[in-house]
Amino acid sequence: MYSSEQQIALQQLTSTLLSAFLPPTAEELRSVLRYHDWRYYVLSEPIITDTDYDFLFKALKTLEEKNPDLITPDSPTQRVAKGLTEDFQPVDHLVSMLSLENTYNIEEVATFENRVKELVMNGDVEYCIEPKFDGASIALVYENDLLIRAATRGDGTTGEEITNNAKAIASVPLSAPFSKYGIYKIELRGEVVIQKDVFEQKNKERVARGEKAFQNPRNTASGSLRMKDPKEVAQRGLQAIMYHISYAVDKAGQNLIGTTLLHHFDNIKMIAECGFKSPVQEVCVCKTTESTEAFLAKWMELRYTFPIETDGMVIKVNSLKQQQQCGSTAHHPKWAVAYKFPAKQAHSKLLSVDFQVGRTGAITPVAKIEPVHLSGVTISSISLHNEDMIREKGIMLGDTLIVERAGEVIPYIVGVVPDLRNGSEQPLVFPSNCPSCASPLIRPNEEVVWRCENADCPAQLEERIIHFVSKEAMDIGGLGRQIVIDFIANGLLKNIEGIYALDFETIRTLEGWGEKSIENLKNGIEQSKKRPLWRLLVALGIRHVGTGTAKDIAGHILSIHELSTKTVEDLVAIEGIGPKVANSIHDFFTNEANIHLIHDLEKLGLNTVNNPAENALASNKLNGQTFLFTGTLTQFGRDRAKQLVEENGGKLLSAVSVNLNYLVAGESAGSKLTKAKAIPSIKIITEEDFLTLIA
Fold it and tell me: Is residue 204 within a helix (H) or strand (E), and if so which, with residue range?
């Protein structure tokens, strides 16, 4: 970031400004403050006191207040925005933020390496290995050297804009000299974290103030990014570690990934040279499985003394050209893999078991254990899944359990420690009646779960309503889980139909409900009546029917009432519907109570038919043709590509095969293009050719 000569000059300038012999200029103050920010937040090597830094900062602030025309967007005084953030707007990432495929042993790493060699046609491959930081993912976009946007990961395609909050993180430069590398616009990926010692100190301070301690560093970092007040974000002690370039173009818009920018490790070094906190010192480039194994073994021990929580290592193909050859799935890149450290284990006492009732009547036993801190999280409840698992593991009340976080995420009971039993343990008896309504439980053939089949069961009803209003179903804004529970407790909501007949006058009397929140809820309910038919099919909570299945079904009917006339054989004939799903749908639509519910919802104004306008094709120009897109698309994104194919009667495939008619090859197309060239029946076309097909 700074050469030796620049550092000497800035240190001398600092001394001059602190002496106050001459009135400083705004640019002089900005220069020395940026330099000391870099030393403190990136290098962790401050060379001036906090008092001296505050003196210089105050001098700049005073000067800018007297002369507002001197303020620049990247001034240190502009880090913390004034006022509160009202909302976090959705923004599309320049490149999708994919997940990583996980491996848990060196054999799986070797499998990954062999797969990569096949994809790059057995060329020499070297790997860049870096820590997998346990924090909150972030994407930063710089244009013309200025930070213009920061976003959370979101669903990988669309995140939430958090630019003001990102500016409040001192290790995020407000400007960076990418232009000296010929880069005009760039998107960086990284992780927002809290150091272990900072996390502990923040918790001590919170407890001393009588506030609840934070649960773990990862959740704290994630929650901090979505705080309304950037001033509070600035107080959380967050760091941003940037480790990946996902997008980079020059002023002419030319892609630099794989052309000017050639290696991942070199990119990490460049990120550091531009003033970011980057894992330069923690990265190793390995060329053999043996060296990879040795470096992973080294970090198995280092992770305990490393100042930041890590849950594994990330192994990436170093060459960006080879990354492009490897390509990606819809879920993860094929050129990278996460090596997860072995799960940490702990012992804890089983205190009791709660038997919870789900929306389909399934009974799930949940173990209540003595709280135990594991992999940065305090665990007090763990699912026991079903009766068979309890019997297989021989779990008794009062047992000492071996607990681990599977994949460092999901709490899991490995087993019991019989040697620690003292004779006070009691057998764990599965109930024969529903814990909510006392109806007899049944266990259907070939299932491992016990179920309550009482349609009026209060616990099921609560979960069914929560599911009905959820984002994946009817997506009723303003009606979340806790609000549903509160409405039920207050007698305001007794069934699904009651959502559309809420007593808003009574709601007004409840704490926390003002005119704005009531209006939002009313609008959310009214909007839900217009949702497409497939959403209603999801919302009804039919067993085994998720979003994909619901869309398949909706595409073959004009009205929901048709389903009550369909046989199992009719349903199986629908592509994507198997016997198990078909039987579940048939059972649902031959149940009198469910039919009544659907009629009631229809009377209340909910859409129960397919809207021809919604389902109408723009054309039949691609009728029966199959398509696959590869490489970097410049005319439209992947979601839009899929939409265009389906709107014109075509179908999108996920892989190259003899069933593929067209491969649309964008820039830097990799292995899919190579495979397609080997199949004569596949037509390889450009984006422009594709647009011509549907013109």
Answer: helix 196-208
pLDDT tier for residue 441 given thresholds of 50, 70 and 90: very high
Domain 533-614 sits in CATH at 1.10.150.20
Q: What CATH number is given for 345-422 in this structure?
A: 2.40.50.140
Between strands 441-442 and 451-452, the pairing is antiparallel
* CA geometry: angle 591, 597, 603, nearest 5 deg: 140
Q: What CATH homologous superfamily does 626-694 map to?
A: BRCT domain (3.40.50.10190)
Residue 314, SS3?
A: strand
- Give tens-digit pLDDT for 512-571: 898 889 999 999 999 999 999 999 999 998 988 887 788 888 888 889 999 999 999 999
- Catalytic-residue membership of 675: no
pLDDT tens for each residue of 258-285: 999 999 999 999 999 999 999 999 999 9
pLDDT at position 85 is: 60
Q: Which residues of 71-89 are buried (b: 16+ CB within 10 A; e: fewer)?
A: beebbbbebbbeeebeebe
- 102-340, CATH topology level: D-amino Acid Aminotransferase; Chain A, domain 1 (3.30.470)
**Which residue spans of the chain are classified as CATH 1.10.150.20?**
458-528, 533-614
Averaged pLDDT for residues 322-341: 88
Q: What is the pTM of this model?
A: 0.53
Q: Catalytic pick from 58, 61, 117, 132?
A: 132
Query: Cα angle vertex 264, ends 263, 268, to 5°?
Result: 120
C-alpha distance across the termini of the chain, in Å: 50
Q: Which CATH number fits domain 4-78: 3.40.47.10, 3.30.1380.10, 3.10.450.540, 1.10.287.610?
A: 1.10.287.610
Determine contact, residues 366/383, Cβ cutoff 8 Å.
yes
Residue 82, pLDDT score: 60
Q: Is the pLDDT assigned to residue 618 strictly greater than 80?
A: no
Highest mean pLDDT (candidates 22-31, 581-590, 608-617, 674-683): 581-590
| Domain over 458-528 is classified CATH 1.10.150.20 | yes
Cβ(526)–Cβ(500) below 8 Å: no
For residue 319, the one-letter residue type is: S
644 vs 112, higher pLDDT:
112
Q: Are 625 and 565 in contact (CB under 8 A)?
A: no
d(CA 623, CA 451): 45
Gap between the Cα atoms of 299 and 106, Å rounded: 14
* Three-state SS annotation for 215-284: CCHHHHHHHHHCCCCHHHHHCCCCEEEEEEEEEEECCCCCECECCCECEHHHHHHHHHHCCCECCCCCCE
> Are 439 and 432 within 8 A, CB to CB?
no
Task: In the chain, list all ranges with CATH 1.10.287.610.
Answer: 4-78
The overall average pLDDT reported for the chain is: 87
In the chain, where does the domain assigned CATH 3.40.50.10190 lie? 626-694
Distance CA 257, CA 235 (A): 36
